[in-house]
Amino acid sequence: MKQLVRNADSRYVEAMNRLSGKNGRQRVVAYVESYEDIFFWSTLLRTLETPSRYFEVMLPSRTTLSKGKKIALSNSLGARLGSCMIACVDADYDYLLQGVTPLSEAVCKNPYIFHTYAYAIENFQCYAPALHNVCVMTTLNDRSIFDFETFLAQYSSVIYPLFIWNVWCYRFGEYKNFSMLDFYHFVRLEQVDLRHPERTLDSLRHLVNAKMARLQKTFPAAKKTYKPLREELQTLGVTPETTYLFMRGHDLFDGVVVPLLNSVCEVLHREREREIRRLANHQVQMQNELAAYQHAVSTVEEMLRRHTNYVSAPLYQRIIDDVARLLDRIDHGNAPAVPQRQDFFLGKSTPEQPGSQSPAKVSVPLSKSNS
Fold first, then answer.
1. Among residues 212, 215, 187, 185, which one has the least CA distance to residue 201?
2. Are residues 251 and 160 in the same domain?
């Protein structure tokens, strides 16, 4: 019995659903990469539940602690997906690579694999229109002292051309010369001058331009492919103002948004504490109120990971639309076929024809654990 459950596929779940009878609520299993992903995907999929269908979100293995995209889309799972079993993963760069690696091909083309479009869940947690509310949750102070939307749009515009270079390097197998980690070292923010954020952006622009000049010198032949790639990425949603949503998620989280929010929240914390000291009638009341306030507030990191104010993001709604379309096809008896290529999920390239110079099967480290 344990072996049967371990090898269960979509057809097995469908058969179990039939045991519930015609009027029974049908279960759809949704496999995710890690514990942290369960809440995000559960919140999203709950919006699509009906009296006749519900989702159960879980890790792909109940026998090991292995996690990550390669596990979620491994050969032991990939061919088992179907109308009652789906996979939900971070897009990483696989969405932007548009099938040049086997893993990217699976993410982009398998109808039962859904991805974030944004690089990862952390990018949604850092969604600019939601950041003021994160500050409120953190400090219990609703005063707006910084324009997060304008700043992150301007920040994105500054790093945009260098981001295209980074994707170019992964598209054409040159990632060792300019990896995601290299990119992060140029675009992270040590601190932000809240009164004059333009100074921070000017300094960043200088670093970006210098690195671009070196890349242009290193890869002169890229002049023919850089612009077409930029135009293609724009059709995928990568614009100068939204670049931050497509860069590596934990780099954005740890190296840009958390330092920025910490600076803002520190000001709001001090402001609230000054207010308490000013309004307190005596020393004991002041100490009690300050202690109660400190007990009620939280850290920026905790609130960033807990909030769901990103649900209005266009990319988030796009994921919902994708799942809804699949469910509609299933309900109308038009479920798409499951890809049968085994190497589709193994992370191995199909051997190129002799003499082929095509970069379409470049091996690059794109999984969450490696990137």
1. 187
2. yes
Distance from C-alpha of 153 to C-alpha of 320, rounded to nearest angstrom:
24
Residues 213, 279, single domain; the answer is: yes
Give the domain extent around 275: 128-309
Domain co-membership, 162 together with 270: yes
Q: Do residues 37 and 183 share a domain?
A: no
Residue 352 lies in a domain: no
Q: Quick one: 57 exposed, middle or buried, by C-beta within 10 A (0-12, 13-18, 19+)?
A: buried
**pTM for this prediction:** 0.87
pLDDT digits (tens, 9 = 90+) for 136-164: 999 999 999 999 999 999 999 999 999 99
Instruction: State the pairing for strand pair 113-115/85-89.
Output: parallel
Helix, strand, coil shares of the chain, percent, nearest 5, are 55, 5, 40
| Number of alpha carbons in the 13 Å side-chain half-sphere of residue 58 | 12
Domain count along the chain: 2
Query: pLDDT exceeding 70 applies to what percent of the chain?
Result: 84
pLDDT tier at 74, thresholds 50, 70, 90 = low
